[in-house]
Structures are given as structure tokens and as C-alpha cells.
Hints:
The complex is a heterodimer of chains A (303) and B (451). Helix content of chain A is 70%, strand content 9%. With 303 residues, chain A is of the alpha+beta class. Chain A folds into 2 domains: 7-33 and 112-302, Multidrug efflux transporter AcrB transmembrane domain (Multidrug efflux transporter AcrB transmembrane fold); 39-107, Alpha-Beta Plaits. In chain A, a hairpin with a 3-residue loop joins strand 2 and strand 3. The radius of gyration of chain A is 24 Å and the shape is elongated. In chain B, helix 1 (2-25) packs antiparallel against helix 13 (388-418) and helix 4 (60-78) packs across helix 9 (230-244).
Amino acid sequence: MKIIQHRKIFFTLSAILLTFSLFSIFSYGFNFGIDFKGGTITEVSFESERPTKEVVEEKLSILDLGGFSVRPSGENNYIIRTRELSLEEGERLVQVLENPTVERQNTIGPVAGVELKDKALKAVMLVILMIVLFITFAFRKVSDASSTQTNRGVSSWKYGLATVVALLHDIIIPVGVFVFLGHFYGLEIDLLFVSGLLAILGYSVHDTIVVFDRVRENLRVNRETKVNEEFEATVGRSVTQTLVRSINISLTLLITLLALYFVGSGATKDFALLLIIGVIVGTYSSIFVASPLLVTFSKFRKK
Amino acid sequence: MTSWKHIWISLSLIVAFGLLGFFVVRGDGFGGKFPFRFGLDLVGGTELIYRADTSNVENIPDAMESLKEVIERRVNIFGVSEPLVQTETAGLASGSRDERLIVELPGVTDIKLAVELIGETPILEFRLARENTQNILETNPDASIDELFESTGLSGRYLSRARVEFDQTSGAPLVGLEFNKEGSELFAKITREHKNEILAIVLDGAVISAPVIIDEISDGVAQITGSFTPVEAKELVRDLNYGALPVPIKLDATKTIGATLGEQALDAGVKAGMIGFVILLIFMVLWYRLPGVVAGVALVLYAILSLAIFKLIPVTLTAAGLAGFILSVGMAVDANILIFERTKEELRKGKDVYEAIREGFVRAWLSIRDSNISSIITAFILFWLGTSAIKGFALTLGIGVLVSMFTAITVSRTFLLAITFGKMTPLKKFLFSNGLNFSTNDRQLTTDKKQ
């Protein structure tokens, strides 16, 4: 496995994916759910025969709803998204549809939504900041090692930097894919999406740390046994040693996530999809992006 | 032989976890005392979120507590099983303090009715007992407040304040009332005209105290004597002070989930968990052979321990919470995989199984610790982010990560060491090696070691 030597190929692949993701984020924009923009979501179930979407839309057009969207769900249900409705308006909506069973009706005021968006953004930034601080702390001894053995290794903040690049890579790509799907299949950015994103963040770092930990250990062993090994070779060896583990852990996660996606409740289906993308990208990045980046960073210094 | 010690510990662990498993599964008896708590999205019901206007209140926690109790009383009248009323302070970190009241009504799907019931302002009234109270009660034990007491027109509106006082001779706690000018006049008139009658203090339609009028009170100051404990007196004072003038609340968000949708979500979540779990076990056993079986047992124990903790705390399980738990099962395997991979490397270096496992644990521990800390940081921040659905996810994920670290370093380790007794045989070597034998640069490492 010559992952490090061929890093340009992997960097190019990641660059293409990142470009696509950023393009989709900026051109399509986020499709926010009612958690973030406020509004009412109503899911109704028709017991016998479900009317067509057009019929439902026509019936709803009598009401003064402004823009609304109707999306079929399951076999008998429709999910209707509207502006924030008062209790009476919510009742009227159900009456107009000739009283199907109300499976759920959630209303969130726009103020609460904006607040939540603000809070979610803060949470994501805070997680990134805390993790960078933690990595710099956890790898502080590597810095000591490289100061005595000038030819081996890079300083600890570069581990932090490589982790952050991998981490940004791991959120931008799933967000891009999700926004793309959101545009064409109506997936929404809601609170669950944000927690999924944070879970991906945690996993991405988790996975990168395992590889870096191995680099850290190999550098130490080399120093103790006075073996002269190029940094590039040490990283390459560390990646190979942790490869089986990296693949296996992503497989176990994918097993549970696929079960959640195919069998789990509709409420967590999109969430599972986001995590599936995240786990694949996160595993890929810790092997093919973060570790090669370490080598690239070490080359910069030598020049 | 050291492994006998590990065998005994392993056996007692299995028994202990077996009992814990019984606790998790049991719906009655001791296990029934700590039932699983499911979120509304899994059982169906209505959630109402109110924002409280605390701009004119000095003691906010006290006012919110009083508001919560008033609302709880109203909900209880409604006859909902296991209602949940909680207050929440949001936005502490962002600076704009925001007090919320969250009412969860499982099984109630008529939002309008629920809102009407809760939305009313709490009312404090002073009512006179009707003459034939005894007779009415005898013929109709369920007689309403209106049938038993007549209105006097005196209400919380006229109360300027209430406070706890103590009887000067007996030292028993009393509740002192002070009316404003208008209230004083009305109170004087009532007490003058209805001596020796019962004047009930009614809060939200429930009689909280029924003192007898002893004499005319013209100064607008009254005492409610009764057999109060100091705590009861204090609570009554708080209810009177705030019951009459509660914190104004505004409906901010509503959520209704039908019972069928909730039931389906729960079924689907449990089913997904089971299927994921079983495939995971098969994968582990096929790839890691004997250690895989150990990992499987450790995973089962992990699931039992987590579920027991969910029951005890209790953690409200929502659809997102179930997802968090299912995700944590996948993560829990990671510690085991890290250990097995390290053990395999140590075996390749020519160590015996027992030593290899010990060494594998020591070497894997740093990775396990550092990688899990990042997950714990994430769970912690998510929990702080608020909102019930997200909290559920953060809590199950966080507990899952902590428990998985615990089971990996105690349970998996002890079990593995327990099954290493005896001499190395080809069969044993096969059982302890794994996968498809990827060739690595390990040989170089071996020579390094020997230098």
C-alpha cells in the first residue's frame, strides 16, 4: 500500500469532492426545516384511500396559507409544510382535508427558530475549537520529540492543523451532498441534522487520532531504538498498521447505520443517511488526507 | 495460575450482568419501579412550550417553581397519565436569559383542549361555605366547588401580599394575609356579615385552606390558622403570592404526535437496533474468531449496562436517542477492535497469547482514551445545546461512549485473559489470529525490537 507516495491522487479526489460540495452549498443554499425558520408541519394519514397530491394541494389552496408544500410519506401519509399556523388554522387545515388522522402537527415560532440556528452554529464552532485544543494538548509530547530529533516528525500544532483540515473536509462533503439531495429530494436541515454533523465531527477526529497516535508511538519507538527512518516512511507504516482497524470500525458503524437507515423509523432516516456519508468520508480522510498531509507539512519545513 | 483468577472474575461478571439484564427486561417488581421513559415522539402525545415573561419578577427561580406547580395542578385535573411539566432556562451562555415552561402530555392529541386548559391564568378566590354543606356532601360526595361554596367576589386581585408568621404562644406557623384598600373593605364586609362561617381559600378550583371567620377584620390583615407544617405554610404563601399574580406565559411552540406514528417509530427503532446488533456480532465472530466471541459477549453486557443506566437516571428515550444508542453500539466495538489488532501484532512478534493480550491492552489504551475524549467533548456540547430531542441523542451517545470504555477495559480484558489458559496449540493460534492476514512491515519492527 503506497498511500503516502500517491497522496497527490487522493488530494485531487478530495479537492474535486470539496469543489462539488461547496458549489452545491452556495448555489442551492440550505433547505431549512421548521426547527430553524419557524412554521407548522402537519402529517396526516388517510385510512382508506389516499387522495392524489394535486387534490390535496387544491383543497389546501382555499385556505390563506401562502406558500406550502405537500410531500407523500409512507403509504397513507402526507407531510404538509406551511407558515406558522394558529391552533384554529391548524384545525381548519385538517377539516379542509375531510378529517384524516393527524399523525403529528408541530408549530415553532420564527423567533425560536432563529435563536436555535444561532445556537447550533455556536455549538459546531465550539466543538471544532475544543477538539483542536484537545489535540494540541494530547500531542504536546510529540513536539518535544521533534525538538530533540530534528529530522523526525513535525511539531504538535501541525497535527492539530492536519486534523482540522480533515475535519473540515469531513463536514463540508456530507453537508454538500445533503444540500444537493435537499434540493432534489427535499431533505431538510433541522436540529437532528446539526447533531448528526456534530457526531460526524466527533467520529472524524476519533478516527484521525487513532492513526496519529500510531505515528506518535512509532516515532517514540524509533527514537528509543535509535532507528533512522524517514518521517514519510514512519507515517506510511503507521497508516498501514492501523488500516485494518480503520476499515473494520467503519464497517461496524456502517452495519448499525444501514440497519437504522433501512429498518429504523422515518424520523431518523435522513439522519442515518447523513452519518453514513460522514463515516465513509471520515474514514477516507483519516487514511488518505490527514496522514499524507502530515508528510506534506513536514516537507514544507524542510524547504 | 493467574488465569483462574480471571476465570472466576469473568463468571461473577456474567452472573452480575445476568441479574442486571433481568432488571432491564422486567416490567414489574423492582425493574418495574424504574420503567423506561419514552419521549413523546415514540408514544404519541402533545408537547407545549411556553415562554415566561419574567421581566417584572424579582425571584425568577421561585416564580418559575410556583408557575410549574400551578400548571401541574391543572394538568392533574385533566387526568393525563404521567404528565411531565418542567421549567427550562435557555440561552444562559448566549447572554439572553430565557425562561421556558415545557408541558408534555402523553396520549393527548387534542392540542386545542390542552392549550385552553393550561393557558388560563391561575385564579385565587375566597369563597363562603354554603349553609348546608354537610347535607350536600352526604347526598353527593363529588359535589363541585360551586355547589359547596358561594363566591364572595374577593379574589387574588385584592391581595397585596402573604407571608409566613408564627403564633406567639404556641409557635405554630401561620399564614398572614394583607389586602389592598379595596380588598380590605370587601374583606371587612364579608367577615362582619358571616361570623362563624367557613371562608375557603380556593386556588385554581381546589380548596387549599378553609378557616373559620372568628371576628370582623377591618384592617385588611388576616391570619390563616391551621395545622400547617412550616414547609406547608411556606408553600401556601408562595402559591398565594404567585398564584394571584403568576408569571405571564406565551405559547411558543406546539407538537403533537399521533400514537400510531410513535408506536411505529419505536418498533422500527428497536428492530433496527436488533438487526444491526446481530449482524455486528456475526461480523465480529467471523473476523476475530474467539476474541470476536468475547467482543460479542462484551457488547451484550455493554447493551445491558447502558439500558440499565437509561432506566435508572432515567433518560428519556426519543427517536434521536435510540439512534444515538445504536450509533454508540457501533462505536463500542472500536475499543475491542483496537485491542485485538494490537494483540495480533504482539502475537506476530512471537509473544505468548497471555502476554500479547496484556501488551495489546496497554498499547491500545492511549488510542482508546484520546479518541473517545473527542466523542465525549461532542456529546457534552450537544447536551448543552438544549432542546429535548438533541439532549436525548447527546445523553445516550455520551453514556454509550463512557460505558463502552468501561466494558472494554474491564469486561473484554478479563474475559480474554480468562480464556488464555493452557499451552499454545495450532488450534488456539488459529482461534486467536484473525481476518485475512494482511502482510505488513511488522518483520522490520520485530528486528528493531531485538536490537
